[in-house]
Amino acid sequence: MAELRTLARPYAKAAFQAAQDQQQLAQWAEVLTLAGQITANDVVRQLLANPGTDEQKKAELILATTELEVSEGIRNFFAILAENRRLALLPEIAALFNTYRADLERTVDIDVTTAFELSDEQQQKLAQALSTKLQRQVSLAASLDKSLIGGVVVRTGDLVIDASVRGKLKKLAETLSS
Q1: Domain match, 84 and 158 both
Q2: Please, which residues have CB within 8 angstroms of residue 60's CB and are 6 or more apart in sequence?
Q3: Is 143 strand, coil or helix?
Q4: How many whole angstroms separate alpha carbon 28 and alpha carbon 94?
Q5: Which of 4, 34, 81, 149 qualifies as a cystine partner to 165, CB 3.0-4.6 A?
Q6: Based on the domain organization, do 128 and 164 belong to the same domain?
Q7: pLDDT tens sequence across 68-91
Q8: Half-sphere exposure of residue 105, counting CA atoms within 13 Å on the CB side?
Q9: In which element (H, E) is residue 161 found?
Q10: SS in 3 state form for 124-177?
């Protein structure tokens, strides 16, 4: 996975820079995200691995499958990916592109897992507190996990805040056993 991310990084940076220069961040994000989802499909992966199919045709097929109107810049980007045989990197390129976009727009997606259903008011308060702590606009996605017993687990990127009863009991058990 790290290898793919390393290979994808220069392409994602180039795509992000081109999108910024053309003031088309939303369009590029939409096309790359959809193309990444398409190329993550097992059947499409097999097609991309087929050496008998022309690389440019593969790129055109992916763009046609998105059914989106794309700019000349996006077409050129896909042509470069095809020329360098990097179309299979599209899922990683899309993920990195969306990370760069979120950094620029100062937004963050947060997954919150709770032991009990959160009310809308509680979700708003939590989103507001996290927004203040992270200094970003927060988009919250809540899910339930009764095995937490109580409390919450907050995840975003590499940051994990475990304020659950299960997490505290686990820490206590580790402390007692050492």
Answers
A1: no
A2: 78
A3: strand
A4: 9
A5: 149
A6: yes
A7: 889 999 999 999 999 999 999 999
A8: 17
A9: strand 159-164
A10: HHHHHHHHHHHCCEEEEEEEECHHHCCEEEEEECCEEEEEEHHHHHHHHHHHHH
**Integer Cα distance of 172 and 119 in angstroms:** 30
Q: Rounded to whole angstroms, how far apart are CA atoms 142 and 127?
A: 11
Residue type, 121: E
Coil, helix or strand for 157?
A: coil
pLDDT in tens, 90-133: 999 999 999 999 999 999 999 999 989 989 999 999 899 989 98
Look up the pTM and report it.
0.76
* Residue 52 phi, psi (nearest 5): -80, -15
Residue 60 has a CB neighbour count (10 Å cut-off) of 15
Do residue 43 and residue 81 come from a single domain? yes
Residues 70 and 113 reside in one and the same domain: no
The CA distance from 55 to 59, in Å, is 6
| One-letter amino acid of 87 | L
Residue with tokens 């927060």: 138
